Amino acid sequence: MDPYPRPGTWRERLYIIIFHTYTPAGRLFDTLLLAVIMASLGVVMLDSIQAIHLRYGSWLYGLEWIFTGLFAIEYLLRVICAPRPRQYVTSFYGFIDLLAVLPAFIALLMPDAQYFLVIRVLRMMRVFRVLKLTPYLSQADFLMVALSSSRQKITVFLLAICTLVTMFGTFMYVIEGPANGFTSIPRSIYWAVVTLTTVGFGDMVPKTALGQTLAGMIMITGYSIIAVPTGIFTAELANAMRSATLQRDCPRCQKPTHEPDSSFCNRCGNPLFPPTEKSQPEESAH
Amino acid sequence: MDPYPRPGTWRERLYIIIFHTYTPAGRLFDTLLLAVIMASLGVVMLDSIQAIHLRYGSWLYGLEWIFTGLFAIEYLLRVICAPRPRQYVTSFYGFIDLLAVLPAFIALLMPDAQYFLVIRVLRMMRVFRVLKLTPYLSQADFLMVALSSSRQKITVFLLAICTLVTMFGTFMYVIEGPANGFTSIPRSIYWAVVTLTTVGFGDMVPKTALGQTLAGMIMITGYSIIAVPTGIFTAELANAMRSATLQRDCPRCQKPTHEPDSSFCNRCGNPLFPPTEKSQPEESAH
Amino acid sequence: MDPYPRPGTWRERLYIIIFHTYTPAGRLFDTLLLAVIMASLGVVMLDSIQAIHLRYGSWLYGLEWIFTGLFAIEYLLRVICAPRPRQYVTSFYGFIDLLAVLPAFIALLMPDAQYFLVIRVLRMMRVFRVLKLTPYLSQADFLMVALSSSRQKITVFLLAICTLVTMFGTFMYVIEGPANGFTSIPRSIYWAVVTLTTVGFGDMVPKTALGQTLAGMIMITGYSIIAVPTGIFTAELANAMRSATLQRDCPRCQKPTHEPDSSFCNRCGNPLFPPTEKSQPEESAH
Amino acid sequence: MDPYPRPGTWRERLYIIIFHTYTPAGRLFDTLLLAVIMASLGVVMLDSIQAIHLRYGSWLYGLEWIFTGLFAIEYLLRVICAPRPRQYVTSFYGFIDLLAVLPAFIALLMPDAQYFLVIRVLRMMRVFRVLKLTPYLSQADFLMVALSSSRQKITVFLLAICTLVTMFGTFMYVIEGPANGFTSIPRSIYWAVVTLTTVGFGDMVPKTALGQTLAGMIMITGYSIIAVPTGIFTAELANAMRSATLQRDCPRCQKPTHEPDSSFCNRCGNPLFPPTEKSQPEESAH
After folding, report:
1. ipTM of the complex in this document
2. Could you say which of C74, C90, C252, D165 has the lowest number of CB atoms within 10 Å?
3. Does D107 touch chain C (CB under 8 A)?
4. Which DSSP symbol is given to B284?
């Protein structure tokens, strides 16, 4: 699959360094990129603290320019050395990489626009791009399989949660009323979410006896039904991890995989390990 | 089971559209119904916000009439085209559908009655009626099997929770007393529920050293026993998911469950559906 | 085991009614007892509400006498009809039953003593005595098996929690100090319990940047390690539920139980279901 | 492994008492050590309470000296009787034991230094040194196996949590802004951790409708993804518990795990330890 199996030109060598991790130079590049991403995130955060902004605002402003420059250079290098530049630019990762460059330019043109902060923080997603190449993420794949196979069940669960909080929120609005801080149904639903998820900020609390009784029921509901997504995900994950079938061709019909404890082929009924054959065992059950 | 296998008359065609989803028209009808339900919910919520009520109250009042009219028309159509109208009217869904119409009429006659809000929000349950017909809900059935088979265990668990909060609540009432906000045993029990379920509003907090020690024990109890409903549900769900196997006792060794496509028992090698017995195989793969 | 297999005298009939549930009269007795227990609990709770105490205090006082009288009569009847009265009086349940009578007498002699409240609420434990006889509790047995077999693991877990909260509490005391409400190490440990268990009252909160960083770590720790007791209990419960072995005497060595999917006896190596024997299957695998 | 198989000299007898638990004297030593550790912890805690410090400060000061003296004597004894003193001193436990002595000396020289409190509390870790020798900790080993085999998955999970709280925190900072208490991005991230972990102190709460909506989404996210570490750990623990089986590849069919007392493979009926091969069976039942 590798478009440059034996790198010769500088473009090919650059491609290996920037897009792959398996060479020391590639690993160094990824580490540096990670450091720059984290540093640019740190600048965004420090700049949001009033005291630091007043004192070092211009320094951080300068740093932001430097990081943006680095990201721009990186983006250009990626476009230059990619085997099919157009394909890279229009790909998901190409978009993410461009996103790291653009917002700073826009934000510098219109420096008051707080909302560009969000895009600057989106740079953090590039961390996953870099880590994608490490062995850790094979584990994430595992989680993804379990999550995606329980997707439907989780959708049903979230729908049920939404219904519950709407119902409970309306009930509390009717019971407690604006006098006790439940000023509208949406605000009461917000309270119901806070309570059902066992967060419990305490900015709104029921004051009436009936409201406290209903609140108690909501809490016990929330406390108990947390079992549902946990159960769903655990069961799916256990399934994903248990994918251990017996790898052995049936001597008669050649069916290659069987349940882990099978003695007979469940398609043709032949013994999988006939007692007469004295041969060396060649297959192993994982 | 379908009462009109080959729809001819307009009543029959209407029945297919309103009660089923498998035709494009039926799917459209369900989507529209869902939109109207959500819109009527939105109106209830917006109307509860003081500022919006003062400004757009009469508009929302009008919209409520329109939605009620639509639900009334829908209810009449359902009664007209149902193969057995009386059976539909007295059924659970017939009741839910009627509920969507009545409250608005009553609420419009007595517009101050806040309590009709609750019934108006109950319309939300119709969402499940509509979604019932989508493939998603086969997943909900799955959850229901697991939930209903762990019903008894969950009842015991809830009973234990009730006993714990009553005990802890009384202890805290005695230890902290009205001076620290624990003004009565029911209120202290409410606090115990808030604490045991790890919600922790903070509207009542223990002030004495002994009270804080007991509170710490309640919290650790609540934090730990959340494992119980989770464990119960996970184990039941894993059971329910494992039952997607071929349920057929092997004629020789009685092994009850097999892989879905088995022809022979993988324990004893016997044919699961021996050719000599000439009956149809009653395999039931769930 | 039943000491009166064919009840004849009134004492024997009374024994059946009071100590057993399997006759209609016995079931009625248990239901009444449950109602009296709940009513006496209700009186304790209502009496703790200031407004009700001032208005109906003397009525509730009278009701307490009546309930105490009923419990006293019940206790006497139990002593009279028990086959071995001395054994009953010294048993655990005899003590619980006596506890239901004594506190009220003492509390009436010294009516200010708030602490007797606790003993009055302990009557609630009699609910379990009554329910013990219902099928529900066979499920609780199930839970008890799982809980007791994970007892050691849970002890280790609780020990780790105690160490964590002591460490974190001391760190926070040093970082935040009395100025921010962390007035002593025990109080800081209380805060650490509130935070680690994700209760989060909000009566004490970190104010310094370092304190908030450490608090964030405590929260993520608490949020994550909730997986530990849940995992322990789930795995144990799954074990307790899976006790499904193959019940089949080995034709050669007569070993009676095998792993669910065994084809051969793992003690003597003989096929459990030899192909030559054409007999009817007599055993079933549960 | 025991360096003194038949203790004769006083050094050898002391070694057995101090480093081992299997003699009554050794058990007594460990119990006393545990008591001294807990007492020294208690002194640290009591001393941090202002009222007690003012009244009994000098007493607690004296007690700290005594405990330090005891730990110093213990440390000297350990160095003297250890078979290889240098190896003990440079070992992990040697360091922990020294740590119990040093801080008090330093703290007494500079009594204001609050930060030495932390080191004094680190003595608590010695509790684990003492308990290490009890059977309970074999259970902790169990947990450790499960935790360490799910380490990678948990790292991925924590990384995802960090990304989520950074994103959500920035969004909330932009939406709510300093006027509503979200004074900087780091503080908003702190709030996001408090909310996502369902702790919910309530010291910062969203005030705007959009902020409350996003907060509700954060809460439901936090409430749902708690399933992920729980599922991971449960599946791993179930695996770790299931490994209490006979690990031996069947010579013919290679089935790798068997019931602990198996002589024959229950899949193919082959002897697991055939008599012809005259080697000792290397069965290893974990």
Report:
1. 0.78
2. C90
3. no
4. E
